[in-house]
Automatic annotation (TrEMBL):
GO terms for cellular component: nucleolus. PROSITE patterns: HELICASE_ATP_BIND_1, HELICASE_CTER. CDD domains: SF2_C_RHA (cd18791). Residues 184-204, 214-231 have a biased composition (Acidic residues). GO terms for molecular function: ATP binding; hydrolase activity; RNA binding; RNA helicase activity. It comes from Allacma fusca. This is RNA helicase. The lineage of its organism: Eukaryota, Metazoa, Ecdysozoa, Arthropoda, Hexapoda. Residues 520-751 form the Helicase C-terminal domain. Residues 1-24, 168-261, 555-578 are annotated as: Disordered. Residues 14-24, 168-178, 232-241 have a biased composition (Polar residues).
Length: 1182
């Protein structure tokens, strides 16, 4: 209040206010003075003749100060204006009503007009929807008068209307239809009543209802027969028995359309009716196509009685209808079933019989292993009585797929490559992902890609079905993944295995599980009824060790690789081979000798002291077969053949037989519980082979192998306590346990830039994706925009797009791309194939004589000079050359220390790479597959070393320097040690490498692996440290360019180059001073301008270099900006990004006057004409 008073009544406000003075003229006005001739305008009201004798009374009247108008905002002003406007309209409303009455139609004219209720007022889209299945129902009212019965509320939701409309019968009638209108005869409805009624479906329908029969006629009809429903959508009363009424209806509708004419309502009506007719025709055509398609989807298969009998025993056969209904109703289906239910072999047959392999489409099935793809193709082809071309397989290097293929089994990598060329997989009608619970890397990527592919195919009206077949242990990864599948997939569960399998745990977990496995096989062979034995171990070496022990303990056992040398033994084998095994009905055996007692959870077999060296003369012959991934395909197929008469089958295998592959006649499983896993370090990439416990899911899979042909038994060589506490539930998905650089490159090539947001079944760690992306950036396969932050998503480069099309890893793909510039593609193709294949060179295994022999051969292959520095790469080149020259016999490979299967695989991969490269380089000279490739020369060996370095920028190692060894450390231990850029631990060259003795100071390696706590390097090649700065610049940290020696202009490349110091990697190893291109900055443009003025870039400018107004070195001085001529020249070069001779030549081709004005500022005016006539100076370039 105080503040307000101060504002309204300030200090001395009375004096500052101007009051009106009022004088009391009462006495003066009493005197009457008449001055007719006096101008009164010059005097006041006072008496001009009489002056007052005393002061007159005066009063001062103060006026309240003028109030300032209150400031109104724009919003307040508009609000007040609207109030004023509203008041004015209200005041003028009476006048408006009186004015409208002057224009009111007469009652006769108004009655002749068509009411609004009888005119089409709905939108065209709503009209089309509601015109589909709308009928009319006529009912008699209680008062005896018929009236229009109001229809139900107009359906607002399109989907609700469509779902409701499906309940109609073929003739469009329904018992309780809210859209059926009662047929009425009262035409004199009041306007008030018509306003409350629902809008008719169409003008034509309403018109037919207006001219309804009279009340009397309807009463007669009601008495004789029930009133029929009339479909207002149809153009005639189809249900009416009278032909005249139908003709009358047609005539009325025609009149109504003529009445509308070309008005807007008439055009809308015609358009709506044409659309309805068009939709009806399309629906009929689609229905007829589906009927024809359904007729075409019937394929009958004639199977033999034997096959029918074996199929009938599978649990999936009774579920065929359920499976096919789910596949038909859903775009993706998860089919879960225990091992042995038959999902791998029978689902493709279900799909084939349902017609999914017709109309040019094929059925695709992916398998995680090559063995499973080959065997399943043969099995399904046999049961369907189809050829190997019709039911084919396709693996990495071979296959039987052709244009006749109907069902195609393949590895997941093969289908992934197909998606790289054809993302929609147009030739497939259905894709089945088998053994999805194993969660291999390519399987996870395939499922993620296919989850989007099937949606895209559905939008194109060419649906693709996705069937994910998995064990029941891990279906939650797919069913509960909302990121992977937007809608919940269909689900089918197949019952468990058809025969029970009894599990036997050991009482004590043995340390030497290989020896324990041999004992268990002998016990089963001696005491248990007939049946095959399946032994699970970790790797090839253990497989061969167990086979060797079984051959020694069972002298009559045939060697799977070579026959027995002794003739006596061979004769004894023939004699005992004809003796049949004792026949025992396994189903009637109540208790096996090794079976645990009820209530006990352990097997007491360990209490029996089984001596391996006991007399085994009474043992029956044992047919032992190995099975592992490195085994040739011909030998792998032997496990599916029946054993010789009188022999028990024994298969010693790795986890390759854990899933998919069904080995016949197996009733006993010996499970060591061990698995050899390759573990990768996510950051360093070091891989380690370690023998670990398998998962509980894998153990269940192994046990399931025993219940295929009858009741089986699984003997686990570990205790139940170990199983419960040491075994994890599931194996770690491969995508989280290995580098993903090849996966990232593949996804980037498919334009999936946000790899992190890809719908993985189990996403990889962010650290894995970051390491993979950094490697691809170092290789040049990915690129980021200039100025982009580190987290900005990268895109694939042209080099990366080429690398993604080669069937090798990103490192070797970069080497192949680099080899073309020096015509070394033939050598690099061979090296890429050789480095990709694992375990090419054999190890002596402790045999020193054999090791010295193989080492001498490999040292001879390396040669001397620069070729010797090529190291292990030179050995692989000469090994492949010698293998092809000899003809590729297994005996030659053993003699030279080579693995025969690896050499065959190198040959196949080399051929595939050659074909792929020739497709990519159409405009260049194609490379040939030369089986007798000559060794590289010294110059070619040097270039190959540089190419290998460019593909392995992060795999450089340096020998430990003497000054880095502390006094307390073992000098002999560290003299052979190396350090890697990403590792803190010391590493060593593998003893199989030819560079182990020479020990170069700087090397590059292809593989780092750990054995017994020590890290070894394989695939070693010697390099020079000065190459690193040129070939691996992203791995180096640069200092400033050296001033002494100063930068110079390289006439060969036309570039400004300098001398620079740098360090490599996180270890900060100092590299020698190298000559490289000057880094892009302002100084580079200054030096280029200096060399241009000196005539180093173009020789024609050298003749005017002595006449320049300033020295060219002025361009590189710190005070160069003070001169206008230096600043203008530099600005022109920077704006056009011209810092080399090729760029300047290209700029002159676009603008011949480029830099002419700026150069003339540097020379006297007398030379201007001569320079203008010779510009641009490109005729005699250096």
């Amino acid at each position: 209040m105080g503040k307000k008073a101060k504002e309204t009544r300030r200090y001395n406000s009375r004096a500052r206010s101007q009051g009106q003075i009022s004088i009391d003229q009462t006495e003066a006005n009493k005197i009457q003075v008449d001055l007719k001739n006096v101008d009164g305008s010059k005097y006041d009201d006072a008496n001009p003749l009489v002056l007052p004798s005393k002061k007159r009374n005066t009063t001062v009247k103060f006026t309240a100060g003028s109030k300032k108008e209150k400031f109104l905002s724009k919003k307040q002003r508009k609000k007040l204006e609207k109030i004023v406007e509203r008041r004015e309209k209200k005041s003028n409303r009476a006048d408006l009503v009186s004015e409208l009455q002057n224009y009111q139609l007469s009652a006769e004219t108004y009655s002749a007009l068509t009411p609004l209720v009888k005119v089409q007022t709905e939108g065209v889209r709503t009209l089309l929807l509601e015109n589909k299945e709308v009928g009319v129902e006529s009912k008699k009212t209680a008062s005896g008068r018929s009236g229009w019965k109001k229809s139900g509320a107009i359906v607002a939701n399109k989907q609700k209307f469509l779902s409701w409309s499906r309940r109609f019968t073929s003739n469009g009638q329904a018992s309780k239809n809210p859209q059926v209108l009662g047929f009425d005869t009262d035409e004199e409805e009041s306007s008030e009543e018509s306003e409350d009624e629902d809008i008719p479906e169409s003008p034509g329908d309403d018109f037919s209802a207006v001219d309804a029969p009279s009340v009397d006629d309807e009463k007669e009809t009601t008495e004789e027969e029930p009133i029929e429903e009339i479909d207002l959508t149809n153009s005639k009363l189809s249900d009416s028995p009278s032909v005249d009424r139908a003709a009358l209806e047609e005539d009325r509708k025609r009149k109504f359309e003529n009445h509308l004419g070309d008005s807007r309502a008439g055009k809308i009506l015609k358009k709506a009716r044409s659309k309805v007719e068009e939709n009806k025709m399309k629906a009929q055509e689609k229905q007829s196509e589906e009927e024809v398609k359904m007729q075409r989807k019937v394929i009958h298969v004639n199977r033999t009685e034997e096959i029918l009998a074996s199929r009938s025993k599978l649990p999936i056969i009774p579920e065929e209808q359920v499976v096919m209904e789910q596949i038909s109703d859903n775009i993706y289906v998860v089919l879960a079933g225990e091992t042995g239910c038959g999902k791998t072999t029978q689902v493709p047959q279900f799909l084939y019989e349902a017609g999914y392999a017709t109309e040019g489409k094929i059925i695709g099935i992916t398998e995680p292993r090559r063995v499973a793809a080959i065997s399943m193709a043969a099995r399904v082809g046999k049961e369907l009585s189809l050829t190997s071309e019709e039911v084919s397989f396709q693996i990495r290097f071979e296959g039987t797929a052709s244009s006749k293929t109907l069902i195609k089994f393949m590895t997941d990598g093969v289908l992934l490559k197909e998606m790289g060329h054809d993302f929609l997989l147009k030739k497939y009608s259905v894709v089945c992902i088998d053994e999805a619970h194993e969660r291999s890397l390519f399987t996870d990527i395939l499922i993620g890609l296919l989850s989007r592919c099937v949606v895209a195919r559905k939008k194109r009206n060419d649906p693709l079905k996705l069937v994910i077949m998995s064990a029941t242990m891990r279906i939650s990864d797919f069913m509960e993944n909302n990121v992977l599948f937007k809608t919940k997939p269909g689900f089918v569960h197949i019952p468990a295995r058809q025969f029970p399998v009894q599990i036997h745990f050991s009482k004590v977990t043995p340390i030497n599980y290989v020896e324990t496995a041999v004992k268990k096989v002998i016990q089963i062979h001696k005491k248990l009824p007939p049946g095959g034995i399946l032994v699970f171990v970790t790797g090839q070496q253990e497989v061969l060790t167990i086979i060797k022990h079984l051959q020694r303990l069972c002298p009559n056992t045939e060697d799977p690789d070579e026959s027995v040398n002794s003739n006596d033994k061979k004769g004894a084998w023939r004699k005992r081979g004809q003796k049949p095994l004792k026949s025992v009905n396994l189903d009637e055996v109540k208790r096996f000798p090794e079976e645990i007692e009820p209530g006990s959870d352990s097997d007491n077999s360990e209490t029996e002291d089984v001596n391996i060296d006991v007399d085994t003369s009474n043992l029956e012959p044992l047919h032992v077969i190995p099975l592992y991934s490195m085994l040739p395909i011909e030998d792998q197929k032997k496990v599916f053949e029946p054993p010789p008469p009188g022999k028990r089958l024994c298969v010693v295998t790795t986890n390759v037989a854990e899933t998919s592959v069904t080995i016949p006649s197996i009733r006993y499983v010996v499970d060591t519980g061990k698995v050899k896993d390759k573990l990768w370090d996510k950051v360093t990439g070091v891989q380690t082979f370690r023998i670990l416990w398998c998962s509980k899911a894998s153990a269940e899979q192994r046990a399931g192998r025993a219940g295929r042909i009858g009741p089986g038994h699984c003997y686990r060589l570990f205790s139940s306590a170990v199983f419960e506490h040491e075994f994890q539930e599931y194996s770690t998905p491969e995508i989280k346990a290995r580098p993903v650089d090849d996966m990232v490159l593949l996804m980037k090539s498919m334009s999936i830039d946000q790899v992190k947001n890809f719908p993985y079944p189990t996403p990889p760690d962010d650290e894995q994706l970051q390491v993979a992306e950094e490697l691809l950036l170092h290789l040049g396969a990915l690129q980021r925009p200039q100025g982009a932050r580190k987290g900005h998503p990268s895109t694939i480069s042209p080099l990366g797009l080429t690398m993604s099309q080669l069937p090798v890893g990103p490192r070797f793909a970069k080497m192949l791309a680099m080899s073309f510039s020096h015509s070394l593609a033939e050598y690099m193709t061979l090296l890429a194939a050789a480095f990709t294949v694992q375990e090419v060179l054999l190890e002596a295994g402790g045999d020193k004589a054999l090791e010295e022999k193989w080492t001498a051969v490999r040292k001879k292959w390396t040669g001397v000079g620069q070729s010797a520095l090529l190291g292990d790469a030179k050995v692989l080149i000469r090994a492949a050359e010698a293998f092809e020259h000899d003809g590729g016999s297994p005996e030659f490979c053993i003699k030279m220390g080579l693995r025969h299967k690896a050499m065959v695989e190198i040959r196949k991969l080399r051929k595939q790479l050659t074909n792929n490269i020739n497709i990519l380089v159409e405009n260049q000279k194609e490379i040939i597959l030369n089986p007798k490739l000559k060794p590289p020369s010294d110059e070619e060996a040097t270039l190959l070393r540089q190419i290998i370095l460019s593909g392995s920028p992060d795999r450089v190692a340096r020998k430990v320097q003497p000054d880095e060894v502390s006094g307390g450390e073992d000098q002999n231990k560290l003299k052979n040690a190396y350090k890697c850029g990403e590792l803190e631990d010391l590493v060593y060259i593998h003893h199989a490498s030819v560079l182990r003795r020479t020990k170069p100071s700087w090397i590059v390696y292809q593989e780092a692996f750990e054995i017994n706590g020590k890290i070894y390097l394989r695939g070693v090649v010697a390099i020079e440290p000065e190459w690193i700065l040129v070939l691996c610049p992203t791995m180096c940290r640069f200092d400033k360019p050296l001033k002494d020696p100063p930068p110079y202009f390289d006439h060969t490349d036309g570039l400004v180059k300098c001398f620079m110091k740098s360090t490599y990697g996180k270890q900060g190893w100092e590299l020698p001073v190298a000559q490289i291109e000057y880094p892009v900055n302002a100084e580079k443009y200054s030096y280029f301008a200096q060399f241009l003025l000196e005539g180093e870039v173009f020789s024609l400018l050298k003749q005017w270099s002595n006449s320049l107004l300033s020295l060219p070195k002025t361009m590189t001085k710190s005070w160069a900006k003070l001169q206008p001529r230096t600043q203008s020249l530099l600005e022109q070069l920077v704006s056009a990004e011209v810092d080399s001779k090729p760029k300047l030549s290209a700029q002159w081709e676009k603008n011949p006057k480029y830099l002419l004005k700026e150069y003339l500022e540097w020379v006297p005016e007398r030379l201007h004409r001569q320079i203008k006539s010779s510009w641009p100076p490109v005729e005699s370039s250096v």
